[in-house]
Amino acid sequence: MRGRAPRGRATPYLFLAPALAVYGAFLLYPLLRAVQFSFYDFDGLTVGTPVGLANYAAVLTDAGLRAAFGHALVLVVFFSLLPLLVGLVLAALLVRARVRGLPLFRTVVFLPQVIAMVVVAVAWRRIYAPDGTLNDLLRAVGLDALTRTWLGDYATALPAVGLIGTWVSTGLVTVLLMAGMARVPKELYEAASLDGASPARQLRALTLPAIRPEIAVALTLTIISALKTFDLVYVTTGGGPGTSTTVPSYEVYRRAFELGEVGAAAAVGVVLTVLVFAVNLVVNRVADRQR
Amino acid sequence: MASTRSAAGRSLARAVGLGAAAALALTACAPGSGSDDGGAPPQPTGPVSTDVAGAGDVTLTVWDQEVRGGQDEQITQLNAAFEEAYPNVTVERVSQSFDDLATTLRLALTGEDAPDVVQTNNARATMGQFVAAGQLVPLDAYADAYGWRDRYPESVLQYSTYSEDGTVFGEGSLYGLPQVGEVVGVYYSRSALDELGLEVPQTWSDLEAALQTAADAGRTPLLLGNIEGWPAGHVFGAVQGAHVDPQEIQALGLGNAGASWTTPENLEALGQLQQWQEQGWFNEGVNGTNYDAAWQQLADGQGVFLVAGSWLAPDLQDAMGEDAGFFAPPPADGGELATTGGTGIPFSITTAAEEPDVAAAYIDFLTSDDAMQVLADTGNLPVVDTASYAPESGLLADVYTAFDDVSSQGALLPYLDYATPTFGETLNQTLQGLLAGELTPEQAADALEADYADFTSSGG
């Protein structure tokens, strides 16, 4: 066997073939089918009729759908940006502080990430309920005026759902950033301190550039989870009150399974996929360029 | 190095391109054209037979959603009894929750190995579309053979009746038979009523007076958990029934042309619901309260009345015992008894069924007098001759009586979300807006009218 170099350029692909076949059958093929469906008026039962770009035109002109995409972008703030800010502070503290039980803290911070989203949603529904934990707490400290039905109020429903996302993502972001920060040699911080750089300055000049790849990964993962949020909204508010917490994934589900508009649902799904790609392309381009 | 990489890159690109082209070639035909029974409307082939024993060995695949306690019990008993009566038939049961069935049935019906008998929701988005796609067998010939039209009141059968193209709901051919009935009414706590010195209201104005009395006494008159959106629809159904002509609601609810949401009566009903909220007659934060939390509050003595469906009776009976009572929403003075209600999910025969005669016999068996007794024994609400199965006293007796009164003497109004495929969502959003004070009754009526008129003017 030794010395018999593999002949033919096809050999690598033969090795790749099993994985490619699985990838193709379960990812590429469904994706292409969805793209194809999106050009049809198709109810999932009878033969579809081609309608060209009509489904996409509807995505752009439907005020309800535009609102849903708007809500998804608001959720990005809560799922990605807030956790990034909180995570930076937490990670900096956990890496620098010489506290006992660090693994315990790390586990506790990461825990929300491990719990199934449906469980998280059910728990938070109770917290936000009119006689739930949050309102009880507010009443206990005399802030009765602030109590409200968090998930049932037009003004607070979307931020309330978003904050659940913040709670879930913060752990993941923190652990990622901690991994990045641990890589930065301690001597650099010592040198910076000797030169009189404040902790804030150290963070800006030393830590942030060093952990840019981790930030990019954290943003990518959390933005994807923000844009494709479904279970959280499905369990907590079902899109309500009114339409104040509708999100694109929920609209895909509703169209395909409740309304029987499979073509329109596929179009929404494709637009959502493109949006996720585009946003993450920008994030990663920015992270790469500055390296 | 650079050249090898770019060569590899080129061939990879080619491979991906080839793969994509192959996938596209696979998908070149129109979606839905692959299935065998692509939309030819089914016709009953020849005379139907009620002879099951002579059909030879048959396996009947049944998809149901009878998963909860008493439901599961009754269908298990009846399936066993059917197999015993006809040893040549095997019932293969596939059981899943209502939501799961709703999402999987669409795919299952178009598949190669479709079930023979399915429970399919009456609404236009499900049964209506399946009828239009030619996936359900019209049961009229069987109805004649088995006398189903004598067995069931017309007010019940209309909810599984569609025109052949699925555009008209409530008229045309029969496509399914339900086992159980449902009625939306008012639950109350007997002890709370006694404390307040109130009787069970006989008219709508009695009910309003009772709510006022409860509010004056510092109690929460009405409980509602509306975070899910649909519970308010049931409360509104009762309010609407007291204000609007049943014929009008029938047309609105079934999504048939000729009615309007913007009539003064509908505006009055929407206005009354909002007014109840503004007067503080509901518990605090209805839009943020869970449906289940609301009825549990009634059981905990935190409220006086709860407008909800008969399906809560077993749970409330367990939680409250003799203290729980139920009455149909009382009619307006001089008006007709009318409230939202209907049937459990009907059993239908698919066009994929190889032995439709056996399937029909099975459905007949599930809805026979003996079956109704089994349903009553297992805590369900039999849809046929309900009052005769009523227990002597208690909450279930109240519920049985209310359903029988409404279905035989009054008007059993359709669930409003039957109207159009999107109406459930529209109604939920509108009523949440109305209760939150975000919408005026006029704006709410306009939103509902837009959905209804859009659908009816497009011819379904």
Outline the structure in words.
The longest helix of chain A has 34 residues. In chain A, 38% of the residues are buried. In chain A, helix 4 packs across helix 7. With 291 residues, chain A is an all-alpha fold. In chain A, strands 1-2 form a two-stranded antiparallel sheet. Chain A has a single domain, classed as Orthogonal Bundle (MetI-like fold), CATH 1.10.3720. Chain A is globular and about 75 Å long. In chain A, 73% of the residues lie in helices and 1% in strands. Chain B starts with a helix and ends with a helix. In chain B, 51% of the residues are buried. Chain B has 2 domains: 169 residues, D-Maltodextrin-Binding Protein, domain 2 (3-Layer(aba) Sandwich), CATH 3.40.190; 225 residues, D-Maltodextrin-Binding Protein, domain 2. Chain B is globular. In chain B, helix 2 runs antiparallel to helix 16, helix 10 packs across helix 18 and helix 12 crosses helix 19. Chain B has 460 residues and is α/β, with parallel strands linked by helices. In chain B, helix 2 links the parallel strand 1 and strand 2. In chain B, the strands form 3 sheets. In chain B, strands 6, 7, 8, 9, 10 and 12 form a 6-stranded mixed sheet that branches. In chain B, strands 2-1-3-11 form a 4-stranded mixed sheet, with helices on both faces. A two-stranded antiparallel ribbon of chain B has the order 4-5. Chains A and B meet through helix 1, strand 2 and helix 12 of A and helix 1, helix 3, helix 4 and helix 18 of B.
